[in-house]
Amino acid sequence: MNSTSSQNTRINLRRCAKTFGNTQVLKPVTLDIQAGETVVLLGPSGCGKTTLLRIISGLEAPDHGSAILFNDEDVTSRPIEKRQVGMVFQSYALFPNMTVRQNVGYGLTTGQGDERLTKADRDTRIETMLKMMRIQDLADRSIDQLSGGQRQRVALARAIAPRPKVLLLDEPLTALDATLRDDLRMEINALLRDLGITAIYVTHDQSEAMALGDRIVVMSEGTIEQIGTPEEIYHQPNNMFVATFIGATNALSGHWGHKGFVPRGMEVPVAALRMAAQGGNLMCFRPEDVDLIEDGDQASGALKGIARTIAFVGSCHRVIVELPGNQTVTLESAWCHPPHPGDPVLFKIQENGVLPVWSNEA
């Protein structure tokens, strides 16, 4: 672990819930976060992810019966200033009357962290943070002289400077433009790996979650839908919500037979060897999990449709295909000769392309 971080901290949440008035916005959550792990809380607005983050930080008190443990120490009733957590917000929350240097060093002068520092040690720590975040040339500027990306770097440096036990990030990149957001996402990822600090990151952005998380906690309506690595969440979703919330998903209506799935409007089963999804009326697969058939021979288990919309998106062509039975699917592939609207399209779903979820929704 890099010397800039505090001891690795393991977090255990036990039956953490939150009720406002008569509404339980967060149903009891039990979650174990390993020391040095980056866990992303992912879900749509109102799913409870920020409430859970605030409970972990100490900004929000959980319902009676909840328990929050840092390295087996119960901190449930401990206020935020006693939990040694660093927080980064979407709004930056910087002090406009202070310079960049003063903002970064703020937590070191207010007793945050687990150590007492001399002035010389504080100055050294501040310089280390400025260099780490590549803002040393901005040290004497005021906050209103900084761009959004520069302000977020200052906020990160300020949160990390006291060497917190846990770093909590609440949608820190949402206010930035797309290009800057992508750049900072990669920087944050590298920073967290280098520090080895336990981090919890809240976002509604699936790409952000996939890029940053060792594990992702997918939430909906106050409950956890699935916990897993980015690969597990993407390729082995627990249910239809996860399958459709994480990445693009095609859902074909039809029925399962003993030889496979028969889409509505067709008589021939689709060859799909992953049969864990049997049941219900839908079969789901990702747009990229297809093999194109360009020689005109309709192989066994192939689907044939008509191209309706074609878009070049850089790494591939995205084609919306109309199938029999008034169904449409989206395909993504690096076509050698992309179709034109009205052209026939022949494709097969890859051997392991069928997602292991099912639904009775037609």
From TrEMBL:
InterPro entries: AAA+_ATPase, ABC_SmlMolc_Importer, ABC_transporter-like_ATP-bd, ABC_transporter-like_CS, Mo/tungstate-bd_C_term_dom, P-loop_NTPase, Transp-assoc_OB_typ2. Residues 11-246 form the ABC transporter domain. One of its GO terms (molecular function) is ABC-type transporter activity. Its main location: membrane. It holds the Pfam family TOBE_2. The keyword ATP-binding applies. Gene3D superfamilies: 2.40.50.100, P-loop containing nucleotide triphosphate hydrolases. It comes from the Bacteria. One of its GO terms (cellular component) is ATP-binding cassette (ABC) transporter complex. It is a peripheral membrane protein. It is found in: Cell inner membrane. Belongs to the ABC transporter superfamily. This is ABC transporter domain-containing protein. It comes from Pseudovibrio exalbescens. The lineage of its organism: Bacteria, Pseudomonadati, Pseudomonadota, Alphaproteobacteria, Hyphomicrobiales.
